[in-house]
């Protein structure tokens, strides 16, 4: 019955994808839903894309073991990131009437920077998509008994179908359905847990003193580790294409900005549900923490100790979280490939052919992500890896390129190269201060020094950029 209900849900998701495909007539329909989404749909689709399996299968276990410190990166970092995007990036970039952040880099720094930043984006998405495929594979393995390897390909096949045919329209409508399942499923499981524990107070009672510690112990390295946790998503995900693709899909700059704020609220509030569930599950069934740091804590608890209706709701919610994140993650690099890696070098290409090539890119991205997934099955590690490279290479050119008129092309190159090289060396020498701190500081330093010592010879790009933002 459980397996049948899950496949029925997947069939419903695919049906929505086929229905949404009727709205896709142009590349803009496929990539930006015709720039017609209201605030609610923008917020919901960002939330659904970011509320991935790591928040249900990875973070709760770390919360049980480490307390507040275990959720700084995901729970607090994601919230801060979306708030910053809403205040300082969403409206400004929307007004430029662009499709991808690669378009921004082209307008601001030229085609060469567009090319390298687009390649970086595509590469980093392989890690994030792989994490979703791994989560689906574990789920299929526990429910229907297929191997993890076959589960990876099965999950990829399902997501590719409705992303390929419906694009952003399919992603948006399925995200709406999946968000309802996520909230409903987690709420039912939480109510069930609280009923067994006698309320929420016993769950938080008798926790270790350092469980509620929000700030690190004294010491330079404790603080640098703490800062690195905040940076991972807090600022590291600011240049993430999947956020802006949904912002650019809004019907106006205001709708896009408020949609980002709504997604921040949803991430923080709904993200707290699996944390409480995880604590309750660990209290009731401590043996489920196992040797994998609680990665299977909540799914294991639901599968072994809950009724069939609760299982159906929970696993529907879990599948929803994975599918929504996977589809959104695959559409973003596919859009970048079409808009920034193919279109500029094929000037006579028709929109119909661009649409076809973008759809084919979805398939290629899925296949490569499957390879990444089979090489690494640590869900949270894959997700964090996806944010590192865009932070150390692209955060400085995006931020300073948008707000500092003296930013130059050479400065952008120095930011990318300095950030990557310093991060790579720091990681190779296993520095005590986290490599992402060194890499990010090096990137901003390279951007500033490169722009000061080798400014652009013409102000044409800056005038064009200002006019686009003020439109």
Total domains: 1
Whole-number radius of gyration? Answer: 22 Å
**What is CATH's topology name?**
Sodium/glucose cotransporter
Number of helices: 20
The secondary-structure element order is HHHHHHHHHHHHHHHHHHHH
Mean pLDDT over the full residue set: 88
What is the terminal separation in angstroms? 55 Å
What's the architecture, going by CATH? Up-down Bundle
CATH class: Mainly Alpha
- The total count of strands amounts to 0
Helical content stands at: over 70%
Classified in CATH, the superfamily is Sodium/glucose cotransporter
Q: State which percent range the strand residues make up.
A: under 5%
Any low-confidence stretches, pLDDT <50, length ≥5?
Answer: none
Q: Which overall shape is indicated by the principal axes computed on the Cα atoms?
A: globular
For the sheet with most strands, the description reads:
none
Structural class by helix and strand composition: mainly alpha
Walkthrough of the structure:
It holds the Pfam family SSF. This protein has helices at residues 2-20, 27-32, 39-50, 54-66, 72-88, 90-94, 101-109, 111-144, 148-197, 201-204, 220-234, 241-247, 253-284, 297-305, 308-342, 351-375, 379-403, 409-428, 435-453, 460-470. By secondary structure, it is mostly helical. The protein has a single domain, classed as Up-down Bundle (Sodium/glucose cotransporter), CATH 1.20.1730.10. α15 (308-342) crosses α16 (351-375). It starts with a helix and ends with a helix. The model has no long low-confidence stretch (mean pLDDT 88).
């Amino acid at each position: 019955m459980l397996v049948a209900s899950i496949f029925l849900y997947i069939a419903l998701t695919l049906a929505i994808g086929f229905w949404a495909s009727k709205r896709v007539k142009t590349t803009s329909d496929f990539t930006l839903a015709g720039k017609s989404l209201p605030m609610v749909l923008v917020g919901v689709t960002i939330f659904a894309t970011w509320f991935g399996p790591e928040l249900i299968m990875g973070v709760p276990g770390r919360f049980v073991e480490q307390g507040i410190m275990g959720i700084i990166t995901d729970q607090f970092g994601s919230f801060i990131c979306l708030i910053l995007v809403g205040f300082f990036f969403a409206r400004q970039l929307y007004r430029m009437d662009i499709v991808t952040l690669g378009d921004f880099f082209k307008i601001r720094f030229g085609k060469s920077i567009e090319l390298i930043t687009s390649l970086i984006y595509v590469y980093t998405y392989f890690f994030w998509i792989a994490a979703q495929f791994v989560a689906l594979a574990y789920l299929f393995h526990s429910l229907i008994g297929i191997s993890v390897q076959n589960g990876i390909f099965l999950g990829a096949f399902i997501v590719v179908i409705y992303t390929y045919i419906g694009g952003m329209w399919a992603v948006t409508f399925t995200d709406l359905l999946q968000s309802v399942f996520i909230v409903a499923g987690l709420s039912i499981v939480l109510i069930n847990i609280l009923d067994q524990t006698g309320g929420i107070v016993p769950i938080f009672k008798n926790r270790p003193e350092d469980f509620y510690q929000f700030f690190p112990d004294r010491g330079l390295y404790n603080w640098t580790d703490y800062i690195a946790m905040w940076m991972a998503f807090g600022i590291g995900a600011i240049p993430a294409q999947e956020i802006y693709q949904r912002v650019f899909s809004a019907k106006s700059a205001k709708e896009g900005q408020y949609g980002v704020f709504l997604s921040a609220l949803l991430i923080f509030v709904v993200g707290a549900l699996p944390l409480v569930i995880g604590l309750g599950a660990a209290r009731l069934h401590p043996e489920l923490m196992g040797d994998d740091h609680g990665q299977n804590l909540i799914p294991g608890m639901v599968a072994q100790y809950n009724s069939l209706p609760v299982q159906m709701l929970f696993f529907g919610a879990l599948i929803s979280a994975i599918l929504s994140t996977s589809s959104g993650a695959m559409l973003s690099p596919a859009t970048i490939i079409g808009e920034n890696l193919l279109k500029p070098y094929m000037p006579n290409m028709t929109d119909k052919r661009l649409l076809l090539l973008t759809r084919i890119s979805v398939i290629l991205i899925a296949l490569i992500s499957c390879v990444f997934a089979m090489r690494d099955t640590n869900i949270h590690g894959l997700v964090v890896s996806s944010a590192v490279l865009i932070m150390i290479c692209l955060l400085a050119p995006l931020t300073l390129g948008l707000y500092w008129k003296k930013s130059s092309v050479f400065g952008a190159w120095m930011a990318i190269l300095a950030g990557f090289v310093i991060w790579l060396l720091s990681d190779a020498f296993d520095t005590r201060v986290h490599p992402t701190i060194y890499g990010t500081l090096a990137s901003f330093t390279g951007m500033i020094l490169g722009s000061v010592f080798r400014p652009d010879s013409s102000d044409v790009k800056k005038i064009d950029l200002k006019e686009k933002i003020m439109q």
